[in-house]
Amino acid sequence: MLVTSAQLFLSYNQHEWHPIDFMLCCAMLLGTGTWAMTERHRHRLEFQRRRARWICINCGYDLRATPDRCPECGHARAPAPGASNA
Ligand SMILES: [Zn+2]
To answer: Could you tell me if residue 1 is inside a domain?
Structure first.
């Protein structure tokens, strides 16, 4: 069953929604937002872990022998936090 947003809007204006419908929509939006923020945080932690352990951020290759660029995928190593490019 395909319901367009216009149909949803009209049905909401005509008070055809039960409060539980509205609560379910809010719960789904909140759940999706929480999941997205958790994923973003998890990716950031993985980025920091790999950079600190001299592992390529892109492919996981050991970069201790070639610290500037990954020989496996060619990805340039991210600068250390606080490092200046000047
Ligand atoms: Zn790599």
So the answer is: no
In a domain, 52, yes or no: yes
Structural domain harbouring 77: 18-86
Tell me the CA–centroid distance for residue 80 and ligand 1, in Å. Answer: 17
CA 79, 82, 83, 85 dihedral sign is positive
Locate 3 and state its tokens: 């319901």
* 10 falls within a domain: no
Q: Tell me how far the alpha carbon of residue 26 lies from the centroid of ligand 1, in angstroms.
A: 41
Q: What is the whole-number distance in angstroms between the Cα of residue 39 and the centre of ligand 1?
A: 22
Q: What is the pLDDT of residues 6-53, one digit of tens each?
A: 887 777 777 788 888 889 999 999 999 999 999 999 999 999 999 999
